[in-house]
What does this fold into?
Amino acid sequence: MREPHQKSQHETTHFGFEDVPVSEKGGRVRDVFSSVAGSYDLMNDLMSMGLHRLWKSAFVGMVARRPGLRILDVAGGTGDIAFGIRDGARVGTQITVCDINPDMLNVGRSRAVDRGILVRDDGIRWVCGDAEVIPAADSSFDVYTIAFGMRNVTNIPAALAEARRVLRPGGQFLCLEFSRVVLPVIDQLYDRYSFSVLPWLGKQVARDEAAYRYLAESIRKFPDQAHYAEMIRYAGLDQVRVRNLSGGIAAIHGARRI
Ligand SMILES: C[S@@+](CC[C@H](N)C(=O)[O-])C[C@H]1O[C@@H](n2cnc3c(N)ncnc32)[C@H](O)[C@@H]1O
It folds into this structure.
């Protein structure tokens, strides 16, 4: 018997606008991030004209801050969220970054070294793992964060079920993701920008046009604010709240494990 969120390997899913077998999507996503890992941070600044920093700062500002919290940042990539949380964290806070891609983690580790952050009790742990099968025990974290990662996982309900599993009862769930623009004029401009400027920038800077076309397409395939909130509730998380950023270009979904 399969759980409702389990998918057969014969089913297809989307990789951007393309339909691909479920078994292929993870590998395709890994290739995208291995290809762009070295230029990922620069591209974020160029593509969003620095806006991603404001979104991430708003996101990090919503993370609980108490002494001794165990925080898991899934799909943490090159570490922006972990670094933000660590700045001003209370004593004894333990931060773990979990990402499926070793190349992104390696960039994150060297950024940590550049900042003088070591892998010790007061440092950041870097773990290679899949959001759908997190290598951690049940109820082992107080806070689960994921920024611009959920869009890339093959099976979102499975990843949400994992978020619930690793959170302790009462634990905080926070997700930052591209979402649906709610302002009509911005909507059209953003569409044009996404499908022309992003792939062009990707070609010039990251030498990978396809990776940035995937970015634009994957944003359009991600559920809108209300639908995603429903998926979070369905996974057994409670008190779901949504906060739009920049007219819904991005949105933060927050919830609690009951
Ligand atoms: C757009 S980056 C976001 C990185 C970082 N959170 C940030 O906000 O800058 C997406 C990250 O998700 C990771 N990722 C994709 N699929 C994943 C999965 N199934 N499990 C864990 N990480 C995944 C990628 O390797 C990549 O590092």
In short: The longest helix spans residues 184-206. The chain has one domain: 12-182+212-257. The chain has a mean pLDDT of 93.
